[in-house]
Predict the 3D structure of the following.
Amino acid sequence: MKQPFILTSLLVTSGVMGQAIADELSGPDVYGKLRVQQESLNNGKDDGFRVGQAMLGIKGTLTYDNFKANYALEAEFSDLANPDNASDSNEARIRTARIVVPTANIGTFVMGRTTSGVRTDVYGHLDIFENTETYNPVNGSYTQSSGLTAQPLYAPGVFAWRSPSFAGFYISPSILSTNDANGKSVDGKSVRVVYKRDGFKAAASIVDFDKTIAGDYQRKAVGASYTADNWQIGATHETDPGHPSGDYTVNAVAGRYKVTPKMAVNLGYFKKDHDNNALDNAAVIGNVTYTLGGNPDKGTGARLFLEHEEHDLDPYDKTTLGLSLGF
């Protein structure tokens, strides 16, 4: 079992060093997010009230001589909070168990289970909605996903390096462990190149999976976005040749406009073109948000939202009214 071994090793290491570094710990800080919502699904089916997200985490920093590490541990409890159904596991799930080691001259190292860097850099401008999840639910934390794009939100077992920035560019290769039962230490590899300057960001990535997982499968994507004072817009192109379900491409664009400092409108269009016509999908997703206080974009505050998504594949259509709290 590879992941338990990695996590156990990290816990043992922290236990051995714990007494020596106790007076040099920063934190831990507790943070979380709670989202409650009323959903109305397609064909008049009312899914009723549910907890869309119930996340609790701790984070902090430790230093020891010249060594510094940032740590985070997050768990998701929404399955426990909702009525039993066939789509959830009725248990808490670890979203993040991550150690980040920054260095002065040779970049940053990331280990553990964490948010996918590829998802953040290449697709992050698409993930601006409160409830709609357009990523592949595999290895993610949620079950309500349309899977319009294949890149998951989470990397379950990763060792990654991010280079120092030079002229706005940085590169980040990683190795992935996604299957504990196949006898392989490395199940996949990825690399991404990112450019950031002022409000502009562009990124390209390749994710290569071992053939024992998904055939000779290589996911390629490019994305770009621009952010100004009260608006942002971004687009991503993803190709999935050799996918087990068949080859497909995805084109997506999403944007945000702040009508007032408290009110914003988000709108996105996604188009999935699959070799299997039955799996083609297109979606228009939009919402209106109103900030009651704080800064929800940075994880703290309160926000009301009304969101609707309309798909060619009807089962994914729904309207959601909800309240999101972050602390």
Residues 2-21 form the longest helix (20 residues).
